[in-house]
């Protein structure tokens, strides 16, 4: 911003203008005195300088300029003022901020981003605490900042760290929760962490994020330590049912800390794993062109809809079916069958694989939340203070949604007809299975 002598509020990057029109920037400062130099000191080697008494607002020229006042590029100064102001108010990447400003005023096209990048970067640093080098330093800084409203402390296991965020208002509501979901996100986390691990609670048919954890790894030990701390801080949370993707470390920690929880796996992630191995083995073309093979693969995908005591027997029946495949494709299919048996039938407990009586068969509510968070944050691995600001808003929004639900207000749109039809079809199939038809 441009300031005139006698009427200024000093900030780093400020441009001071004398009554005769010459422009200066701060060079160095001493108690009560600011030493200034011409803003063209690099471009035209101008040695013009001045001394400003910050108490009396008087100035003394020290060296004369080697150019005219008209030599100042007012376009650069105008654009710099706009870009610096936008950098302070926007959380977009600085390059995008610059492009947005220039797009609004094409007359400034002759100025490049590199010319203003440093000034914009300094301006942005003024509105945030220092950038921490790691999660531990972040915890030290956030305690004394305005970002600590939902900060609940850190957990350390060796060199790994977990940072907790949640609202105290949810504690009463969580005493009534019997279904939880949990999921991790990696794209939206700042560079000081490895993932954002979120615990969701089901309120009716609504799945809401209630506890957020910034983790520096995905090892089982850090999950266990974080859940133990959550047990201390939120003893009201005693879920009966849980669902997640198939990450082993997180699932083991949840089963250990929430004794007796009936943990199931997400059906979407199960089918996704099967489809990826189909693609990896080069069987995707066979899947699309061979109706028998496609039907068999889809049968494998629907195994979790069976009662847990029927999964193995049905798998064995499917496994021995004859298929009209070439020798090459048959060898690939054999690898596929061995993968299913090793990875899913043997390794995964049947009571975790089966979703026979589950109202929700996926943790898509958690996945959808992280997709929305990705849209809000826009960039990958954002600045940590911007991330915390967005996270605080999300937690506040969740508090408001829980209050609306308590008043009987619907917070989501009506279910899609397709979803209702799918539920009806599954209910009919379940009824036929139970009745032996």
TrEMBL record:
InterPro entries: MULE_transposase_dom
Residue intervals of the MULE transposase domain: 180-271
Domain of life, per lineage: Eukaryota
PANTHER family in alphabetical order: MULE TRANSPOSASE DOMAIN-CONTAINING PROTEIN, PUTATIVE-RELATED
Protein name, per record: MULE transposase domain-containing protein
Organism expressing this protein natively: Oopsacas minuta
């Amino acid at each position: 911003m441009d300031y005139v002598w006698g009427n200024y509020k000093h900030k780093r990057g400020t441009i001071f203008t004398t009554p005769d029109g010459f422009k200066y920037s701060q060079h160095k400062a001493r108690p009560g005195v600011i030493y200034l130099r011409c803003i063209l000191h690099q471009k035209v080697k101008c040695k013009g300088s001045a001394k400003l008494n910050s108490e009396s607002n008087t100035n003394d020229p020290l060296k004369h300029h080697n150019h005219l006042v008209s030599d100042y590029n007012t376009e650069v100064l105008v654009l710099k003022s706009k870009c610096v102001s936008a950098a302070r108010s926007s959380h977009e990447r600085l390059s995008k901020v610059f492009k947005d400003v220039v797009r609004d005023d094409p007359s400034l096209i002759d100025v490049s981003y590199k010319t203003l990048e440093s000034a914009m970067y300094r301006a942005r640093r003024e509105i945030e605490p220092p950038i921490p080098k790691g999660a531990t330093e972040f915890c030290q800084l956030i305690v004394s900042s305005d970002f600590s409203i939902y900060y609940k402390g850190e957990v350390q296991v060796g060199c790994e760290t977990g940072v907790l965020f949640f609202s105290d208002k949810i504690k009463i509501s969580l005493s009534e929760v019997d279904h939880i979901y949990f999921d991790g996100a990696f794209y939206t986390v700042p560079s000081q962490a490895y993932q954002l691990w979120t615990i969701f609670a089901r309120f009716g048919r609504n799945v809401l994020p209630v506890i957020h954890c910034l983790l520096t790894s995905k090892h089982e030990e850090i999950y266990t330590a974080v859940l133990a701390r959550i047990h201390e801080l939120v003893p009201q949370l005693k879920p009966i049912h849980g669902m997640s993707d198939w990450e082993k470390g997180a699932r083991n920690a949840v089963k250990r800390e929430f004794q007796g929880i009936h943990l199931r796996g997400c059906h979407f992630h199960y089918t996704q794993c099967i489809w990826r191995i189909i693609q990896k083995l080069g069987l995707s073309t066979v899947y699309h062109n061979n109706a028998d093979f496609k039907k068999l693969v889809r049968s494998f995908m629907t195994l979790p809809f069976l009662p847990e005591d029927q999964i193995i027997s049905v798998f064995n029946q499917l496994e021995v079916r004859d298929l009209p495949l070439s020798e090459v494709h048959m060898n690939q299919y054999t690898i596929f069958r061995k993968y299913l048996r090793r990875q899913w039938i043997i390794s995964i407990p049947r009571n975790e694989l089966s979703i026979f009586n589950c109202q929700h068969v996926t943790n898509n509510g958690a996945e959808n939340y992280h997709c929305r968070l990705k849209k809000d944050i826009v960039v990958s691995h954002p600045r940590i203070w911007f991330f915390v600001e967005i996270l605080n808003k999300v937690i506040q929004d969740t508090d408001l949604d829980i209050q609306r639900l308590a008043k009987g207000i619907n917070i989501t749109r009506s279910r899609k007809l397709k979803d209702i039809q799918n539920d009806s079809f599954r209910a009919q199939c379940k009824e036929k299975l139970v009745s032996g038809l």
